[in-house]
Structure formats: structure tokens, C-alpha cells
Amino acid sequence: MNIYDIRRYGTALFLLISIAVVTLFLYFSNSLVGDLAEQERARMQIWADATKEIVNINSGSSDAESANIDFLLNIIEGNTNIPVLLTDDDGNIIMHRNFRLPEPVDSLNPLYISDANALFLNRKLSQLQRSPNVIHIAIEPGTVQHLYYEDSTLLRNLSRYPYVQLIVMAAFVFVVYFAVSSTKKAEQNKVWVGLSKETAHQLGTPISSLMAWVELMRDMDVDPEMVTEMDKDVKRLSTIASRFSKIGSQPQMERADLNSVVDKSATYMSTRISSRISLTVHQSPQPLMVSMSAPLIEWVMENLIKNAVDAMEGRGSITVTTLHEHDKAVVLVKDTGKGMSRKMRKTVFNPGFTTKKRGWGLGLTLARRIVEQYHGGRIFVSDSEPGLGTTFRIELPLNT
To answer: pTM for the full model?
Structure first.
């Protein structure tokens, strides 16, 4: 199991644990809200019983019962946080408490209800009649009153609290993840830049020496064909060093035809692959002018063609196609190799991913960095089936 499998399984495990924790949190929060709702209903039942007793006392009962009226009124007055509406069987509002009315109640005539307040209370009544928060009070045979109530402010806030907390937690996790990802990406960029500059610097001295030796060999009448081949290899090393130096800093962009750059890379690679592998190039009939660093795009094409050669294990065909699509220049590199599974397609651009015993797994990573970070384009596997081959797709913005 490689590091990317471990990270993927670790991420999945973390998500499962997070979902389990959130589920438990919501379960206990909802249980608490449910318990509080039951307590409020019990309080409303006591309130309803007190209302019934007061009505019975006022209708004329014993002096002993009348002595309890202060206690019952205390129960009525004790409700200061649960909005309630008391109505008769015809839906007429008899009493209301704890509602935030649009207009203040007249202190000199508290029983008077203004039109605005009456409209507000009737709307509230219509809403509450559709809710389960109602207690029916049988005052006497044939007389029933109805007590409607809203959840208290505390209960409403408590019911919203878990979701607010989840949003805060999600925002916190997102900020932390973004900060860690940004830091990690910045560190990776520094590693890339440092490694590339150091590689170009280390190659510079021996390449200069080799160039001097080639010139000396020409003056010493060494076989010209041998010197020419050596000179080609030295120039190739110089090109590689130049590419690394461009990776280590922001490369200079120039407007050029992508067709010619792709053709140059394919021509170079065609002489360095097996004769049993055919390499065909289909160019767009119109120029594909792109702002690019030609040496780096050539490097990308060489990496893709090398990967295609390795995937075919010595026999097959590679087709390179350039296209014009809307505002993009497109390059397709298709091979008839062993193809990739869906799992491989997701990790093929990760650093260190390779199917070769001696591979470093950096070719496609460099290709993605060059295409996406330096050229503002995209590179991805557009199609791949095990045993049928793979197609890589590069998209670059046209510079018209």
C-alpha cells in the first residue's frame, strides 16, 4: 500500500468518524430539545388546569376554593416566556400572553386590542392551529376552551444551536484545511524551485567542461562523426539544464504556434523509440498560437510520449493530435498500451506514482506543474481502459 492509498483510506476513516460524531451530537441535542419540549407541554398543562380552576371559582364555588385563587393566579402569572393563546370553541381569542405585539398595549385599558394587534394575534392563531402545540380544556360539559402555545425562546434557540455549532465547526475545519493545504503547497513549491535550481546549477559546470572538450577534440582531428554525436549529447544535456532552470523560476512566455512545438518534440522522440512502435502526428489545419515556454512544453510532450512507449512494452502505436476547440488549443496523446484503472487515473499525477521498477514518478507531476501552474491550462487522462490504451489531454488557452 503506497502513501496515496494510506491517505485516501485515512481520509475516508476520518470522514466516517466525523459523521458518527456529528450524528451522536445531533441525537443527544435533539433528545435534549425533546425533553425540554415535553417539560414545556407539562407546564402548559398545569397552566391550563389553573385556568380551568379559576373559571370554576369565578362561576361560583365554595369559599375554601376561592382561597386558592391567589395560588392559581400565581401559576398564570408565572408563565413569562412561553407565548400562549386561549380561545373558545368558536376560535375567539379570550386571552394572550408573552407575544411581541406590533403595537404596545394600552396600560389604562389592557383588555383593549388594537386592529394591528388583533390582526397579528389572528395570524398567530392560524399558525398555531396547524401545530400540535394545543391543549383542550373542558371547562364544563359542552364548554371547551383551547390553549395554543409556541415553543419558548429558549427552546427555539436550543433547537437551532446544534446546527449553528455545526456550521461554525465546518467553517473552522475548512479554514484549518485551507491553511494547511496552502502551507503544504507553498512548501512543495519551495522544494521544486530549490531542487530545480540546484540541479541546473550542478549540471552547468560539467556541461561547460564537456563543451570545451568537444572543441578540443575537433582541433585534435578526432573522428568528426564521433565528435558530432558527442556534441549532440552535450547540447541535449544543456537543454535539460535549461529546462530545470526554467522550472526553478517563472519562465519567460512567448507567443508561438503549438503545432510546431508538438511536431518538433514528436520528431525528436521518433528517432529514439523502437521501430516496432509507430508515432503519428495529426496537426490542426490552422495555427494554434499560444503564449508559452516552448522548451517546457517540449518537455511535457516528451514525458507523455515516453510514458506511452513504456505502457506499450515495445509494440504498438502512438497518435498525437492537435485541435482547435473554441478558445483552447488541445493536444491529445493516445497510445495502444495496457491502459489504466479508475484508481490509477486518480493518482497518476501524484509525485512518486510510477509503474516502473526504476521510475521516480516525477514526469507527469512535472508535466502537470508546467501546464497548469505556468501556462494556466489543464492536463488530465481523458480516456483509458485496461488493455485498450490511454489518452492524455492537454488544454492551453489560445493567444489570439
So the answer is: 0.55
